[in-house]
Inverse folding.
């Protein structure tokens, strides 16, 4: 489904990108009230949509493409700068250049193009290729057929995303092939409760792996890493995805004796 999601607006963040402008147009007191109201909800409320709404409201003021980048980042930009001794902005500058190359196009078309050139190439397809090759499998995504992608990208944005109604063209195309309960079923991803894990099951393990002897500390600002861990334990912020990223890096460094 990788190609379908990337070309037909299958992620909620595409709808969020379209809504960001309307949110920014609200008076500042109204935006603040919305954030405070969302902050009173547990992240798991409404099938996890509360957490996504909180993240949307927290980042939307940046505008596109930076709000979109924040929504897909595992380590927030402020924490990236705090954790690195000398933060490098080359990747962000390239991201901005790619966005500017589509100036004048419709917002959804720009978001889809940016997603195809970055997240699809550098994340989703890389993962699929590495995992399939690790098991001697040749994998192809039928939704990335050249002619199908070109057709999908030519379609009007209103046919792809309308509010939180996603993959509208794809669902219409297979409406006579699938049962209605399948077509209407909410999207189910592969999310795991990282925030909770790093406060319960993995808290001691992560504290040990990322503690004073961690190899990753030779690449990071140690006291800032301690601050990240402390904030998460104190529940003042949710850094589950950032901790997962750093723990993965630590395991990689140890496995390769770096």
């Amino acid at each position: 489904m990788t190609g379908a999601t990337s070309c037909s607006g299958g992620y909620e963040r595409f709808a969020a990108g379209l809504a960001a402008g309307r949110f920014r147009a609200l008076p500042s007191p109204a935006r603040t009230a919305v954030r405070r109201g969302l902050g009173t909800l547990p992240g798991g409320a409404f099938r996890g949509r509360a957490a996504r709404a909180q993240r949307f409201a927290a980042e939307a003021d940046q505008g596109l493409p930076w709000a979109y980048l924040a929504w897909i980042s595992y380590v927030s930009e402020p924490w990236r700068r705090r954790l690195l001794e000398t933060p490098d902005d080359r990747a962000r500058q390239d991201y901005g250049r790619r966005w500017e190359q589509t100036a004048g196009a419709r917002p959804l078309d720009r978001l889809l193009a940016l997603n195809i050139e970055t997240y699809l190439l550098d994340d989703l397809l890389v993962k699929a290729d590495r995992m399939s090759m690790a098991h001697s499998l040749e994998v192809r995504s039928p939704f990335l057929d050249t002619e199908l992608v070109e057709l999908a990208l030519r379609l009007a944005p209103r046919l792809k995303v309308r509010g939180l109604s996603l993959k509208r063209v794809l669902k219409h195309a297979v409406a006579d092939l699938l049962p209605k309960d399948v077509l209407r079923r909410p999207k189910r991803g592969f999310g795991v409760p990282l925030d909770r894990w790093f406060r319960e099951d993995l808290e001691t393990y992560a504290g040990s792996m990322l503690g004073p002897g961690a190899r990753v500390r030779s690449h990071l600002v140690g006291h800032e890493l301690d601050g990240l861990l402390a904030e998460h334990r104190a529940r003042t912020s949710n850094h589950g995805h950032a901790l997962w990223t750093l723990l993965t890096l630590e395991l990689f460094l140890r496995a390769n004796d770096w």
